[in-house]
Write a structure and sequence with these properties.
Elements: E1 2-3, E2 7-11, H1 17-24, H2 40-54, E3 61-68, E4 74-83, E5 90-97, H3 106-120, E6 126-132, H4 136-144, E7 148-159, E8 162-172
Parallel strand pairs: 5-6
Antiparallel strand pairs: 1-2, 2-3, 3-4, 4-5, 6-8, 7-8
Length: 176
């Protein structure tokens, strides 16, 4: 669907279960997120939701597999760009990369491709992302892709029964 120098961002398929579950089921992997660790049913349901979203026309939610082009499309994570509503010009960005493939720039590269896609193909004017204030890796990705921290949303994320603050980052399409 989308290609970068090293990555292919494509729709998820049922055969991605093993790849997704290999990181989504890890207890520490989702420590900064409202989902996870995933049961097998959670992962199956997530993949089916993504498949269902990919069939909508017009489509406004993109949950995509992050695959390495040179490694026979080895799946290393997922990324997402979602319009707030079908006619909205505001979208939210997200990503998750398997721990074995972190710190290699894949989240940054996939996010930049999604931002370009959002601004040039979905006609978005702003793309935002949120992350737990303690998630240093995500903060670094969001700053590396040119997003600006716009504030703190207090007690925004309920993670394991604990309400956590998160940062909101935004990037604008100034070509409009």
């Amino acid at each position: 669907m989308l290609e970068t120098e090293r990555l292919l961002l494509r729709n998820l398929k049922k055969s991605d279960f093993k790849s997704v579950h290999s990181y989504a089921s890890l207890p520490d992997f989702s420590q900064f997120d409202v989902w996870g660790p995933n049961s097998e049913k959670d992962t199956t349901d997530f993949i089916q939701l993504c498949i269902n979203q990919s069939k909508k026309d017009p489509r406004y939610q993109f949950n995509l597999a992050i695959c390495l082009q040179e490694s026979n499309e080895l799946m290393v994570g997922c990324c997402s760009l979602k319009k707030e509503a079908r006619r909205s010009r505001v979208g939210s960005l997200g990503y998750s990369v398997h721990p074995d493939h972190q710190k290699l720039g894949y989240a940054t590269e996939a996010s930049l491709a999604l931002i370009y896609f959002g601004f040039h193909h979905l006609d978005l004017t702003v793309i935002y992302a949120t992350c737990d204030v303690r998630n240093k890796a995500s903060i670094k990705v969001l700053e590396n892709i040119g997003m600006t921290k716009t504030g703190v949303i207090e007690k925004h994320l309920n993670i394991g029964g604990e309400l956590r603050d998160c940062y909101r980052y935004e990037i604008y399409n100034y070509e409009d």
